[in-house]
């Protein structure tokens, strides 16, 4: 029943897999996905970073691809979208300083729309003040931010995801199968509710 219009907010040095895989998967499954970045327009690119787990105390980081944006941040309105996707990587660290990004994130929670965030995407959720009382997974180093924001950190396997109502989160890209499956289930449930209410 894909018909949902999804907004993806990303930025420079977003995690490569956490941006490109959900973007392409959701498109392949029939959803409309608009990928935007503040200060950039459709056709511009963001640099991606590949975060990998190679036996060190934290992830390694390498330069990834150039990911092409297909919509312009200044032209989109959160109200026109059914759901939100927040990839991880380095981007959430600086995107959380943008008042318009924070306002957009809050809209999806205020309206009860589906939201999927992965890895460092929780930094954006914490900054938006939307985690109080919510169960949220994230990259383990983001646990303090989740808990300081009033969230309940889900200490799950790196290949698992967790749903709390309309919020679907996961620790990192190895969780893509579970994270995307749960997110699409939430999307389809929301679309069914909307259809039945019409």
TrEMBL record:
Keyword Transcription listed: no
Alphabetical list of SUPFAM superfamilies matching this protein: Class I glutamine amidotransferase-like
Residue ranges of coiled coil: none
GO biological process: proteolysis
GO molecular function, one term: peptidase activity
Keywords of this entry: Glycosidase, Hydrolase, Protease
Gene3D superfamilies linked: 3.40.50.880
Entry EC no(s): 3.2.-.-
Family (UniProt): Belongs to the peptidase C56 family.
Protein name per UniProt: Protease I
